[in-house]
Amino acid sequence: MKRMLMMIVVIILLTGCAGLPRMNTSSGRPEITICGVGKSEIMEKVVAGFIMAGFNIRNTSNFQIVMGKPVSNPLVGAMMGSRYDSTPESRLVWTFASLDNNCTHIGVVVQIVTNPGSAFERITDVSTGKDGHEIQEEFERLKARVEGVNSGRSEGPSQTTTMKEQIKQKRQEEIRRGIENMRERMEEDKTLSEKGDVEAQKRITYYEERIRILEADYNK
Predict the structure, then answer these.
(1) pLDDT tens digits, 160-195
(2) Phi, psi (rounded to 5 degrees) for 208
(3) Cα-atom radius of gyration of the chain, to the nearest Å?
(4) How far are the Cα atoms of 170, 182, 185 from residue 189, in angstroms, in the given order?
(5) In the 8-state DSSP scheme, what is residue 22?
(6) Contact, 108 vs 29, CB < 8 A?
(7) What residue ranges of the chain have pLDDT lower than 50?
(8) What crossing angle do the helices spanning 198-218 and 39-52 adopt, rounded to 10°?
(9) What is the residue-wise DSSP string for 44-70?
(10) Domain ranges of the chain
(11) Is 153 exposed, middle or buried (0-12, 13-18, 19+ CB in 10 A)?
(12) Under a CB-based contact definition with an 8 Å cutoff, are residues 95 and 50 in contact?
């Protein structure tokens, strides 16, 4: 009974029923539409940023990226783990859609997965919790940066040039860190691939492709 009560408390905290306001989005989950940037570029930013945050790629397609990492919160780990696997996974399921006028819609579902990678996965949607709100806040900041730059054409030539240089330098630094992190992940996955892990080989192929794209983008 005590464990059940603790689990209820953890789920309430994770799912945002403890005082967090409802997100001002149509789904109630983190999502946003950003104009002035293509879907591929947005996907690259997401991959690079969350790999740096410790996430690994679980699955990818042209419209979706699934990323995960072991839960670091010991209370959540203790309550959401199982006898089969004591370490649950924080999982992010990203969706990307190209819209008219060079706009991209981004959405994400935030999950805690018990028994990750098994046939007995149990998924808890925590998109409305603290992590979801933090991602939505980052979405808003990203939108402001991208659309603010693209619309800021009334500034003088020197101001515009300086802003462009700063943005380019920041973008190049993000790309560089993203490439470094992907190479580190590739080295980890190479060991698994040599042992016959098919999924690890798929991730290596994905990283190689993304690194080539990022390296080309670095010099733009």
Answers:
(1) 445 456 656 766 777 787 788 888 888 888 888 888
(2) -60, -45
(3) 19
(4) 29, 10, 6
(5) P
(6) yes
(7) 1-13, 15-17, 152-161, 163
(8) 120
(9) HHHHHHHHHTT-EEEEE-SSEEEEEEE
(10) 2-151, 155-220
(11) exposed
(12) no
Type of residue numbered 25: T
Residue 135, both tokens = 């991602």
State how far the Cα of 100 lies from the Cα of 86, in Å rounded to an integer.
Answer: 45
**Residue carrying the six token digits 């007995």:** 120
Residue 90, pLDDT score: 92
Q: Output the pLDDT for position 167.
A: 58
Separation CA 160–CA 153 (nearest Å): 7
CA 61, 64, 70, 72 torsion: positive or negative? positive
pTM for this entry: 0.64
Which of 147, 207, 146, 142 has the alpha carbon at shortest distance from 179? 207
The total of other beta-carbon atoms located within 10 Å of residue 23's CB is 20
Q: What is the predicted pLDDT for the residue at 208?
A: 85
Token pair, residue 165, equals 């240089």
The pLDDT, as a whole number, for residue 158 is 45
Closest CA to 29 of 123, 105, 133, 99: 133
Alpha helices in the chain (DSSP H): 2-14, 39-52, 74-80, 130-151, 157-194, 198-218
| Centroid of chain to Cα 75 | 23
Rounded to 5 degrees, φ, ψ at 66 are -110, 125
CATH number of 2-151: 3.30.310
